[in-house]
Amino acid sequence: MVKLTVNGVEHTFDGDPTMPLLWFLRDEASLTGTKYGCGMSLCGACTVHLDGEPVRSCVTPVSAAAGKAVTTVEGIGADPVGKAVQAAWRARDVVQCGYCQSGQIMSAVSLLKAKPKPSDADIDAAMGGNVCRCATYVRIRAAIHDAADAAPKSIKA
Amino acid sequence: MHMIRRLGIESELPSSTLPAPSNLSRRSFIQGVGGLALGVYFAPTRAATPEDVAIPGHAGGTAPESVLFEPNAFIRIGLDDKVTVIAKHLEMGQGTFTGLATLAADELDADWAQVRVEAAPADVKRYANTLMGIQGTGGSTAMANAHKQMRLAGAAARAMLVAAAATQWKVPAAEIEVESGVVMHKASKRQARFGELAEAAAAQTVPKEPKLKTPDQFTLIGKRQLHRKDSPEKTDGSAMFTQDIKLPEMLVAVVAHPSRFGANLKRVDDTKARAVPGVVDVVTFDGDAHRMGGVAVLSKNTWIAKQGRDALVVEWDESSADHDSSDALIKQYRALAKKPGTVARKDGDAEKALSTAAKTVEAEYVFPYLAHAAMEPLNCIVRLSDDGCEIWNGEQLHTGDQMSVAGLLGIKPEQVTITQLYAGGSFGRRANPHADYVLEAVKIAKAAQAKGHGPVKLVWTREEDTRGGFYRPMFVHRVRAGLDADGKLIAWHHRMVGQSIMKGTPFEQYAVKDGIDSSSVEGASEPYDAPNKTLELHSPESKVPVLWWRSVGHTHTAFATETMIDELAAAAGRDPVAFRLGMLEKHPRHRGVLETVGREAGWSKPLKPTADASRRGRGVAVVESFNSFVAQVVEVTVSPDGVLKVDRVVCAVDCGLAINPDVIRAQMEGGIGFALNAALHSEITLDDGVVQQSNFHNYPMLRINEMPQIAVHIVASGEDPSGVGEPGVPPLAPALANAIFAATGTRISTLPIAKQLQA
Prior knowledge:
- The complex is a heterodimer.
- By secondary structure, chain A is an alpha+beta fold.
- Helix content of chain A is 36%, strand content 13%.
- In chain A, strands 2-1-5-3-4 form a five-stranded mixed beta sheet, with helices on both faces.
- In chain A, a hairpin with a 2-residue loop joins strand 1 and strand 2 (9-13).
- The model of chain A has no long low-confidence stretch (mean pLDDT 96).
- By secondary structure, chain B is an alpha+beta fold.
- Chain B has a seven-stranded mixed beta sheet. Chain B has a five-stranded mixed beta sheet with strand order 13-23-20-19-14, sandwiched between helices.
- At the A-B interface, helix 1, helix 2, helix 3, helix 4 and helix 5 of A face helix 8, helix 10 and helix 21 of B.
């Protein structure tokens, strides 16, 4: 039995604890904003936060989330940085097909929490694991800079 | 029928799986939301009748039966003041929902904030692509085929709202104005929102020829501040893709396919798969000439189904399997490129002109198979019942798939209902005339139904998606061209070798003429003036399935043409832009984008050198595809050890009337990135029939650090709108290769570039 918290809601799971967190979220908890893209930690579409740290949920067993707080794209808007990132994404109309964008947003929020004013090199390093097949990268970069300018100043590096 | 049944399904769904309200009965839903629809019919051959006016509808997609048989209903207005635009095209990222809504909303004079978009069901009578004859999204035709239709729909709805207000207020219709969703009669100081007039408007006669705005009257078309309609739900995780739909009693199918095309299932030992806790069943499905057979493991959970799939012991019948290898195919294609092919074009006598030319240039180009590799791996949901078959899918070939499914099941096309969902990319892959993954899903659902199971969601893993075929075909081109003593192009001899996409499909009758598949040769030998031109094609057959891939034939013809022109400019000692302009006298739109991009890129000024020994260079290409014109200038830096960096791309596009300038810019940016991905990294290779790539580690994707700076310039045009989904792709690779030549003196003639400069 695995107990975990997802977006502030407690869940229990009594299935195979080696099941990747991704499939617990999508198929058991019906939180489908987190996407399957590769299953091998190669594309970042499945990125969620585990106690605030970004992880690729397609290779993270649900047991690794036991007793921890999982945040998904459905819950990230409750966070001030998350809200700023989502707003920046909308203001720039970053999305095209949109399938990778949950993961992009989760990685961008992690970056901004670690580095409130990231350089382009910081963005390359932090976002390099997130593939966008529509190649919205120009706008992803711009939106991250926008969110950095808009995010609450109280967020510390 | 479609909408009623769909609402029934929605009411059974957990509320988290669909955005629409889900817990209301149809009756309470209609009463609660109310709303009046304007179903508008525009076929010029049919007079407006009262039946053409659809009565109630609502934002969730249901309406009484009288509406459901109305052709061409594109707009609904609810009592809640919401304007729903029905989109007949797939939204796969290219911005179509936003574009279609912009066209209708502008003529309607709606407030952009009150407009929402709903995907149309599969219904060829109402929602055909007027350039295709079936309902389909492809060839960058959405705006081109629908712009007039959507504007007329908006204008008719506006006229009916105005007529309703005129009747209610007893004032002349001509004195009524409409602005941002408000209908006004200024003299009597009366006004009403659309929702307040919807019921009365529905009783008005549909105007036969609603008056359209002149461009100076546009309030939304061409405006930069409009936001995409799909942005909010694609940033908070609520957008619904096929992958996200869960029906009651639904099982997920994860499949085992053979590793060689043409192989089929011989036998399977599923003992270990069935022993995986949570595996519900295992079924098999047949393959044929165009589709793979295989084994599907069913579970409520995708990962458990995959565990089961991985535990299968499958024996394949490889008696008809493909054993091609890429190296051998290239050798074979090269040999063919030396032999005369089927003539696609013959102006003058190119061979003779070549023999007398002052200078000749010859090159051979090699293009690999390419996978579409959309972020959402292929998937499809099927529910079978006594009434027919329901499908949930991101459909690029809506009614084509509908007919294929009906044919397989022996039912009527109208018994196949399709609920259109967002596609997580597609790039052509979800428009397959052979309906491969859709029919596979139906076969699995049928086998599951026979065993007493409910609906099935087929989910291909990334590996299935990469190895599943239907690639951009491999091509070899051989081009010989000649200049006279003045450096003028006098001869162009172009021979191409590659599989036909259209042959063996329902499109063959239109697209293949005298042995020439137009999608193979499109763009080849164009547009430069030369008195002697020959274009020949070989279309060898193979068991490797091929398909259109974002910009289709232009993906290779533009590269061969635009790099050869660059070689000729160098041979003639001419500037590449000036050399091109000199041969484009009859092509003002090519000239327009080429001159724009030259000016904006600062073509005449030298590039700033780097501090180290890196070499810099700039290259250009101009391509017409899908009636749009795009020129790009690429700037590169190549380090002393051959590491290539693409610094900047300047792009000019002429796509006729620019409906959504920001969507156009986005499609140019994305098209450039997509094309750069392929030019740098992408190739699907075969070894003894087995595809060597499987996932993003060996079919690499462009990452953010490789994305160049991009500046997009839209050339103003009074022409009708044409597409932008594909036309940003073709110029990039040749402009990049030309930039590499400018920097290093090395000509790239084989794609991908990969590590060629580091050799």
